[in-house]
Amino acid sequence: xxxxxxxxxxxxxxxxxxxxxxxxxxxxxxxxxxxxxxxxxxxxxxxxxxxxxxxxxxxxxxxxxxxxxxxxxxxxxxxxxxxxxxxxxxxxxxxxxxxxxxxxxxxxxxxxxxxxxxxxxxxxxxxxxxxxxxxxxxxxxxxxxxxxxxxxxxxxxxxxxxxxxxxxxxxxxxxxxxxxxxxxxxxxx
Length: 189
Description:
With about 190 residues, the chain is mostly beta strands. The chain is built from two helices and eleven strands.
């Protein structure tokens, strides 16, 4: 009887620890591409993305907590136009040589039941750090049937003013507001 009680206590302890602990995920760079859109002289909306992203996400939906730590390589900007990419990497815009990373760090996640719906944190871009709110309109965790690994995915959006980050070349002709969309997938560690 004592052996059964001890075994039940051990199983119960293990379950309660896993319910309290956040689960850690590593960002999958093959399925994570922050993208942006900006007005080009009022004629069109130009779009691009960043091709190299890394980071960690911790989630504890049952407790309504977690954290996000994402890094984007500024030199990985991709627009489909090599000449434009070179200009955007240069001193007029991202200055990738001087500021090689864009980061987003958050420990304030908002859940609706077990659904992640927002993240508030600090974005550092061009050497300037500002508070940013990400709205999350899609969030799903489950078994990835291709990799057979637990995976979480989300789509997050926000709008920033590039001049707030010291990137004001050609404002207002080239738009100051930049819409950002981040599709992200992360695999359980």
